[in-house]
Amino acid sequence: MAARTETTKLGGAPRGARPEKVTAAAVVAYLRGHPKFLARHPELFADLTPPTHRKGRNVLDMQSFIIDRLQSQIDEGRDREGELVSACRGNLSSQGRIHAAVLALIEARSLEELIETVTTDLANLLDVDVASLCVEASEADQLHAEGPAQGVAGIFMLEPGEVDARLGAEQDCLLRGDIIADGRLFGGGASLVAAEALVRLQLGKEGPSGLLALGSRDSERFHPGQGTELLSFLAAVLALCIRGRLAADG
Asked: Is the Cα torsion angle 235, 237, 240, 245 positive or negative in sign?
C-alpha cells in the first residue's frame, strides 16, 4: 500500500517536495497586487539596483524614488546623530558643573562657610538662579545651636515631615517645570523661579531632615524626564560635608 503523502500547513505542498521556482512574472504580479509592499519595507531599496534615468509616457522614475527614500533615511540618521551629540555635550557640561560644586563644598572649612557656599556659590556654579538649604524646624534648632551657622541667610525652616510630604517617602529627588515657586523654599528669590529641583539631604539618624532646593527662571530647566544621578550625588556630598562639620564643630 502506498504511503500517505503528508502536506505542510503552509501552501499545501507535499512534505519534502521541491518548492516552485519564483519567476519574475510572479514577483511583478505580487507587487502589483500589494502596491504598498515597498513602502512597508524601505530597507529593500538599499539592495535594489535602480533603473537608468528615463522619462517618457507611462515611465516611472524609480531611480529618483529610491534616491529620495535613501536620502530621507540619511537625513533622519543625521538628525538622530545630532541629537545624540547635543545630549552628550549637555551631559558633559552638567558633569563639569557638579564636579566644581562638589569641590567648593569640600573646600569649606566650617559649617558657616559650607552653608554660605550652598546659598551663594552653588547658584553660580550650577547655572541656576536660586539655591537654598531647607531643614525641618524641629531638628533645625539643633543645627543652629551646635555651630556657627546661626543666623546665616538662605536656610529655610520646614514643618516636621514636610520633606517626605513634598518628595514622597520613597523618592529622593523631585524635578518640576512651569511652576509658581514656594517662598518657604526660596525666600525672596521665589519670584525668579519657574522650575525647581528638590533633592533630599540624608543627614543621619540624629541629624535634621533637609532639602537642597535649586530654582531656575527657565521653566524648562528641570522636568520629570531628566536624570537625577548627578543631583543625587551632589546632595550626598553636601549631606556628608554637613555631618562632618557638625561633628568637627561639636
From this structure: negative
